[in-house]
Amino acid sequence: MTPYGVGGDHFIKQSEDEGFSESTRPKGSPRCAHFFVKFHGNRTTIPREICLELNALIISERDHLKAIWVYNASLYKNTGVNNVLVDSHCHLDKLDYDDLHNDVAEVIEKAKDRGVDYLLSVGVTLRSFPTMMDLIRPYPNVFASCGVHPLDIEEGFDFDQLRTLAADDRVVAIGETGLDYHYQPELAEKQQDVFRQHVRIAVELNKPLIIHTRMAREDTLRILREENAQKVGGVLHCFTESFEMAEAAIELGFYISISGIVTFNKASELKDVVRRLPLEKLLVETDSPYLAPIPYRGKQNQPAYVREVAEYVGLLKGVSAEEVAATTTENFFKLFSTATR
User: In this structure, how many other beta carbons lie within 10 angstroms of the beta carbon of residue 269?
Assistant: First the structure.
């Protein structure tokens, strides 16, 4: 097994049986020189200057080869390019503060070390919302949303309380709300009613929506249209639906947020959606502590890992990680206009 790249604190070695070897590197050239790479079935190249700047070689082949990531994590502090990223969707109150992190300050610092300067901590119940706010309030680079997740509606809540809590100046969005027919199809009617109420409160408070949707494409779009969600816009988070749904949501003023799922081997449909959508309509997220991207899959996710998502989006779209970072950060602050830098 031969590692590619020099330095850095993350090395994932390429196994010989996957078809790449040291002979891939032109004889006598530096490791980070001009490599031929098989990427989505096409023979392409990583220019020498990019390899030198990133100190990296990333190899991926669609579906049947895992993504290979070898990079120098420290480069993001020193390139002189706008590398600032936003984790547009995480659950800071659900991270492991017993064994993995000392406290939320450490989580924020780990993210900042990798150029992730801003976080949006997303509420999923009203009962847990005050605790989440107490956790993040000392950190001005961490924003909040307020809502009730569609899989948590059985807990019961008061819409007037939602309206009051969501009016907090630190709350930049309403949600996470939406429809999930995968786990609770029997509650579809109740989910739809709660979803409508969230949209109405969002319009009333003039705050964008954070939407969770799974196996409910038609109903999600129908309710957004019927409740005039285009007045405030929002984001379909952790997107795994069709290109057609993404297009319809964008027409309503929504963005599409991409999570670590896009790095998974079997996410071929999602990879195709990302290739086809304009970068100007994308956000990136972790949804931590869930859905850690390759190479951390199987571990608890954290905001620092949104860097891997951005890099992979860049690979799919044929642009640099810096361009993904700059564009998705601008997109975030356009959408969540009350969030301040």
Answer: 12
Structure tokens at 257: 């947020």
Could you list the beta-strand ranges (E) of 181-333. 209-214, 234-236, 254-258, 282-284
Using CA atoms, how far apart are residues 64 and 13, in angstroms rounded to an integer? 17
User: What gap in Å lies between CA 133 and CA 272, rounded to an integer?
Assistant: 37
pLDDT digits (tens, 9 = 90+) for 109-168: 999 999 999 999 999 999 999 999 999 999 999 999 999 999 999 877 899 999 999 999
Q: Are 249 and 221 in contact (CB under 8 A)?
A: yes
Q: How many residues does the chain have?
A: 341
Tally of CB atoms within 10 A around 215: 15
> Helices 217-226 and 243-251 sit at what angle, rounded to 10 degrees?
10
Report pLDDT for 125. Answer: 96
Question: Closest Cα to residue 85, out of 332, 312, 325?
Answer: 325
Q: Which of 251, 313, 312, 309 is nearest to 279 (CA)?
A: 313
DSSP conformation class of 40: T
d(CA 297, CA 261): 10
β strands within the chain, DSSP E = 10-11, 35-39, 42-46, 57-61, 65-71, 85-90, 116-122, 142-146, 171-180, 209-214, 234-236, 254-258, 282-284
Contacts of 311 (CB under 8 A, 6+ apart): 58, 69, 71, 321, 324
Kindly report, residue by residue over 40-81, the tens digit of the pLDDT: 333 333 443 344 333 333 433 332 223 333 333 333 333 433
**Residues lower than pLDDT 70 in the chain:** 1-82
